[in-house]
Amino acid sequence: MGFLPIRVSTLKSDIQLGFDVYIQLPHKVLLYARGSDDIEAHRIKYLKGKKVRKLFIQESAESSYQAYIDRCLSEAINDESTSLEEKSSLVIGAGEATAERIYEDPHSKKSYDAAQNTATNLINVLGQSDELLRGIFDHKIDEESKSNDALMQRHSVNTSSLCISFAEYLKLDKSLVEFLGVAGLFHDIAYSQYDEQKKALFFKPMKEMEAAELTEYKEHPKVGSVILQDKDFASKEVIDLVLSHEEKKNGNGFPNKLTQLTPAQEVMSICAFYDREVTCLGKTRAEVLDDFNMNQLGNYELDIMKKFKAFVKKAGL
Ligand SMILES: [Fe+2]
Ligand SMILES: [Fe+2]
């Protein structure tokens, strides 16, 4: 019998599990909670206090686990006694678990399906709570689990959430919002293909890169889109957004130096840029907005930039 890890951060108390949950001890795996039960709040608190981050389920229970995550999110969002912090933590936990899976196994249909499911969930919960986006951005990564991989997972979830909310704000077509949600999770998937040295480029400002590093870094949208391009389950809109996420309308972007971007491509580019500055390069949100005024003029349609700033202000970012 095979086991799959699940994150403790995706569990919510008082929701019936629907699958058995196991805990890994040094020499064995033990049944921790039965599928017919829920997990009480104090047990979740205890696990978090003991720094247990992962529990296990049987491989065959995977779809029940997905359905459970959906239930937890919709319960939490509508529950007034759940704090914004708890809501954000659940959404991020579920999103990061999907991002981790995408980075570990970028070629599989299962990862793509998980991204689609997560994007649908994000669209749902962000649409129901005006303050959730700010909650997501305010949610700090705890110091001891801070690694480059963890930052990239967070960057995927943030970019996806930002794309969804900004696209909704611009009233883009529903199908575009979905493509943007999935592409936000996948956009830097090339990261999964690189060695440590190349991975480090994702945390380095472009103006500090050596020429050879810059050439290497500018390949990443192409490398990412190639992963998806021969998959019949991947939609071509998502593949295109992965390929064009670093394009700017003045032709300064890469890899194709496009000079015309569709509204969806602009949303993708602006949101991926904003969150790279915040999550990967460690700038404050205010610094990034200042930079928009100073250095990003010409990179995007003026109208989109104005709307992005108004959107960020409204969202409290
Ligand atoms: Fe990128
Ligand atoms: Fe990115």
Could you list some keywords that capture this structure?
binds fe (ii) ion, Hypothetical protein af1432, two-stranded antiparallel ribbon, 317 residues, single chain, mainly alpha, globular, 2 domains, two-stranded antiparallel sheet, 4 strands, 14 helices
Give the structure's gist in a few sentences.
57% of the residues lie in helices and 6% in strands. The protein is mainly alpha-helical and 317 residues long.
What would your notes on this structure say?
The protein is mainly α. The protein has 2 domains: 1-64, no CATH class; 83-315, Hypothetical protein af1432 (Orthogonal Bundle). Helices cover 57% and strands 6% of the residues. It has 14 helices and 4 strands. The strands form 2 sheets. It has a two-stranded antiparallel sheet with strand order 1-4. A two-stranded antiparallel ribbon has the order 2-3. A hairpin with a 4-residue loop joins strand 2 and strand 3. Helix 2 packs antiparallel against helix 3 (84-104), helix 3 runs antiparallel to helix 4 and helix 7 packs across helix 11 (236-244). The longest helix is centred in the middle third of the chain and has 22 residues, at 148-169. The chain is globular and about 55 Å long. Residues 187-188, 220, 245-246, 272 line the site of one fe (ii) ion.
